[in-house]
């Protein structure tokens, strides 16, 4: 009987990605079996501020012959700002922008074909290839990651990223378009958006499966850093830290309007964070951007923002690149540009032209040296065992809160005599080969290669999302969040890193029953305020939790006129609201935050409860009955009174009272899909079922139009 050995014909074909050590040798010998082809790639990003496109943008892309690219990758942000788009998919705006971009490419739409596209509400990425191009494109995969925490409570993303992965000949390329959190005070939220997208963008390329037929339990996964090249672009929203250095808004505007605008780049938050290794590890962009800040302008002009907010100019719109290895041939062949002639938005488009040396592998040539490469990689592995030092052997996050991500760093120092490749092992009983830890913990990056003498910062982030907080009691162990990460060195040992955190139980993620019995957390004061407590809350109905009552009464006191549903989310303000709810001070919350932030907090609170306010009942009988009687107020309130627990009835009536007042005070709220939004919160129905989605909004509208006492006589 013939004996199969490691070096027999069965293992003679090289498949890149199967063995990193062998791949390293094969890359060094690439000249023996590869040819390279120069390919021009133009990348552009544009925050269009919800505007509809004109038929063509003649100046968006250079029409000069030497600047015409084979591939165009375009990312849009805020393509559609209407609330209805977050609830029901509407492609009208997208189709208009695709047509406008296509017509704006050099030579028009007949000269380019769409390779792929991906959309997440208003975040859209599309890649075109020239009709005459000889580059073979294969394994096109798309992905989106929602990160936005808006008034939609993270059900769908108003922030996040869309990505397209593909092979150009035999070079893996990924295009990522992202929109990070806005606001001068949201730096950590932006950093967290990067981590969320980095961890969430994974692909399952079909061609990679062939190399794993002998390992059927391993699902082939391709992460961002597994690509040869990554183009990451979009409205990253990093601002200028000029206020820290005492530079006024007026002075920033004066400098930004002069030829010395580049002097402001030293204050860029993104440059600072990249220098610290906090985000975009090993990504590159020019040391100074050769164009004025791209945000914020009065629409239709090149004038800095003259609105009441008067935003400080900033380079929010960026294009960054990553190369997996130094041997990858990628260069910027024209200075990056902003297109100031396009004025429909409060942002300017940014474009960049690159040359990428795309490899084409001669398979017979690669296979002829493969066995020799295996032996060479074995020899190197035996001579150079990996060694690292960790800055922390365990990570304790202390107290963590709902929707308040907390990050800690672990530095991995390569102290050995060779490169070190590490990865985190998949946890026991994992659902897939990406699941290295519980969902409340995020690790960035999950695998990496550290050159000799260098180090890598691993970010660990605890993030208690709405989905997590609803089942927090099932996750806690001995009152703590606990996890053990296993960091594995390729051809080396494992390092076990215990991670712990204490969740601060709050009104978010609770039940109506617990909220009814909860008392405010005592604050230590020199004066005892017990006798002065809660003149407002004393009027709280018996079946309504105090925290819900206080938010609703604060909103009613402010009125709908002050509610701007397009206001930017401010997590610092949200944390202040949460603290006020938990401590009971101030009892009257109408002055501690804007109407929008109170409105958003109320929606978050209701959405975080373990069950919806309007329970579906066995076999969804309650929801079915309410849809059946959706225009009959008497029947609807009869169903509510006969089917829902008393606390659910009381909260529903209070919310309908508030909405009834708001809709009468500000009619545009009624026609701005706020009913659809509240329907998703109160019923938690499947928002992808378009047939019934509008019906739940009708149910709520009917109950808002006719109070229970009126409808039931």
Automatic annotation (TrEMBL):
<dbReference type="Pfam" id="PF21310">
    <property type="entry name" value="OCRL-like_ASH"/>
</dbReference>
<dbReference type="Pfam" id="PF22669">
    <property type="entry name" value="Exo_endo_phos2"/>
</dbReference>
<keyword id="KW-0967">Endosome</keyword>
<protein>
    <recommendedName>
        <fullName>Rho-GAP domain-containing protein</fullName>
    </recommendedName>
</protein>
<dbReference type="InterPro" id="IPR036691">
    <property type="entry name" value="Endo/exonu/phosph_ase_sf"/>
</dbReference>
<keyword id="KW-0968">Cytoplasmic vesicle</keyword>
<dbReference type="GO" id="GO:0007165">
    <property type="term" value="P:signal transduction"/>
</dbReference>
<dbReference type="InterPro" id="IPR046985">
    <property type="entry name" value="IP5"/>
</dbReference>
<feature type="domain" description="Rho-GAP">
    <location>
        <begin position="534"/>
        <end position="711"/>
    </location>
</feature>
<dbReference type="InterPro" id="IPR013783">
    <property type="entry name" value="Ig-like_fold"/>
</dbReference>
<dbReference type="InterPro" id="IPR008936">
    <property type="entry name" value="Rho_GTPase_activation_prot"/>
</dbReference>
<dbReference type="InterPro" id="IPR000198">
    <property type="entry name" value="RhoGAP_dom"/>
</dbReference>
<dbReference type="GO" id="GO:0031901">
    <property type="term" value="C:early endosome membrane"/>
</dbReference>
<dbReference type="GO" id="GO:0016791">
    <property type="term" value="F:phosphatase activity"/>
</dbReference>
<dbReference type="InterPro" id="IPR048869">
    <property type="entry name" value="OCRL-1_2_ASH"/>
</dbReference>
<dbReference type="InterPro" id="IPR000300">
    <property type="entry name" value="IPPc"/>
</dbReference>
<dbReference type="InterPro" id="IPR047078">
    <property type="entry name" value="RhoGAP_OCRL1"/>
</dbReference>
<dbReference type="GO" id="GO:0046856">
    <property type="term" value="P:phosphatidylinositol dephosphorylation"/>
</dbReference>
<dbReference type="GO" id="GO:0030670">
    <property type="term" value="C:phagocytic vesicle membrane"/>
</dbReference>
């Amino acid at each position: 009987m013939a004996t199969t050995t490691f070096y027999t014909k069965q293992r003679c074909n090289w498949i890149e990605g199967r063995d990193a050590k062998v791949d390293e040798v094969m890359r060094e010998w690439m000249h023996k079996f590869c040819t390279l082809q120069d390919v021009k790639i133009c990348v552009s990003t544009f925050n269009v501020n919800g505007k509809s496109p004109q038929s063509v943008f003649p100046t968006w892309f250079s029409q000069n012959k030497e600047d015409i690219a084979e591939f165009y990758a375009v990312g849009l942000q805020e393509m559609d700002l209407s609330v209805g788009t977050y609830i029901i998919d509407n492609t009208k705006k997208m189709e208009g922008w695709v047509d406008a971009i296509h017509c704006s490419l050099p030579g028009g739409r007949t000269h380019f074909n769409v390779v792929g596209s991906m959309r997440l509400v208003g975040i859209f990425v599309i890649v075109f290839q020239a009709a005459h191009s000889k580059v073979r494109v294969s394994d096109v995969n798309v992905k989106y990651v929602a990160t936005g925490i808006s008034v939609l409570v993270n059900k769908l993303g108003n922030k996040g990223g869309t990505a397209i992965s593909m092979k150009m000949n035999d070079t893996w390329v990924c295009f990522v378009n992202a929109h990070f959190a806005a606001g001068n005070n949201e730096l950590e939220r932006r950093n967290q958006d990067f981590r969320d997208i980095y961890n969430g963008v994974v692909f399952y390329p079909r061609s990679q499966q062939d190399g794993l037929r002998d390992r059927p339990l391993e699902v082939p996964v391709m992460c961002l850093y597994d690509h040869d090249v990554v183009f990451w672009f979009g409205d990253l929203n990093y601002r200028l830290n000029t206020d820290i250095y005492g530079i006024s808004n007026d002075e920033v505007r004066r400098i930004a309007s002069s030829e010395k605008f580049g002097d402001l780049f030293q204050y860029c938050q993104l440059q600072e964070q990249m220098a610290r290794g906090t985000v975009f590890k090993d990504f590159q962009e020019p040391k100074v951007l050769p164009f004025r800040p791209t945000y914020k302008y009065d629409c239709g002009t090149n004038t800095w923002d003259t609105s009441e907010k008067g935003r400080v100019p900033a380079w929010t719109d960026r294009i960054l690149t990553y190369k997996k290895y130094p041997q990858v041939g990628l260069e910027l062949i024209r200075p990056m540009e902003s297109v100031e002639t396009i004025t429909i938005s409060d942002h300017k488009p940014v474009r960049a032209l690159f040359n990428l040396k795309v490899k084409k592998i001669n398979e017979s040539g690669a296979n002829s040296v493969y066995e020799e490469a295996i032996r060479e990689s074995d020899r190197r592995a035996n001579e150079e065992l990996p060694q690292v030092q960790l800055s922390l052997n365990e990570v304790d996050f202390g107290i963590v809160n709902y929707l308040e991500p907390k990050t800690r760093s672990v530095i991995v120092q390569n102290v050995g005599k060779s490169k070190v490749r590490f990865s985190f092992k998949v946890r026991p009983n994992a659902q897939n080969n990406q699941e290295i830890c519980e969902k409340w913990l995020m690790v960035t990056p999950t695998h990496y290669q550290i050159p000799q003498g260098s180090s890598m910062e691993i970010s660990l982030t605890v993030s208690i999302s709405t989905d997590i907080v609803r089942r927090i009691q099932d996750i806690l162990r001995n009152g703590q969040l606990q996890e053990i990460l296993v960091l594995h060195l390729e051809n080396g040992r494992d390092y076990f890193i215990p991670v712990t955190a204490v969740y601060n139980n709050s009104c978010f993620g609770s039940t109506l029953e617990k909220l009814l019995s909860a008392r405010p957390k005592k604050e230590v004061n020199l004066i005892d305020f017990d006798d002065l407590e809660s003149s407002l809350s004393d009027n709280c109905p018996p079946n309504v939790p105090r925290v819900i009552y206080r938010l609703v009464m604060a909103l009613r006191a402010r009125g709908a006129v002050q509610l701007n549903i397009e206001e930017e989310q401010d997590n610092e303000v949200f944390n202040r609201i949460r603290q006020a709810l938990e401590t009971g001070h101030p009892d009257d919350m109408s002055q501690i935050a804007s109407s929008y932030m109170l409105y958003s907090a109320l929606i978050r609170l209701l959405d975080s409860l373990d069950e919806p306010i309007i329970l579906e009942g066995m076999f969804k009988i309650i929801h079915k009955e309410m849809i059946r009687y959706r225009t009959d107020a008497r029947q609807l309130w009869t169903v509510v009174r006969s089917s829902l627990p008393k606390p659910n009835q009381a909260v529903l009536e209070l919310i309908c009272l508030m909405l009834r007042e708001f809709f009468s005070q500000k009619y545009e709220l009624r026609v701005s899909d706020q009913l659809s939004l509240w329907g998703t919160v109160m019923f938690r129905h499947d928002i992808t079922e378009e047939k019934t989605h509008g019906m739940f909004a009708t149910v709520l509208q009917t109950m808002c139009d006719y109070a229970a006492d009126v409808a039931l006589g």
